[in-house]
Amino acid sequence: LDSNYVDHYNMSWGQILGRKNGVKAINFSRGGQTTRGWLSDTERGLELLNKTDAQDLYIIALGINDYQKLGESYLGSDADIDSGADTYYGNYGKIIKAIQTKAPMAKIVIATLAQTDSMAVKYNSAIQNIAKHFNLPCVTLTDDPFFTSDFYLNHMHGGHPTGTVYAEMANAYERLISQAMVDHLDYFESYEKDLATDNAEDLSRIASTEK
Question: Whole-structure pTM over 0.90, yes or no?
Answer without folding.
Answer: no
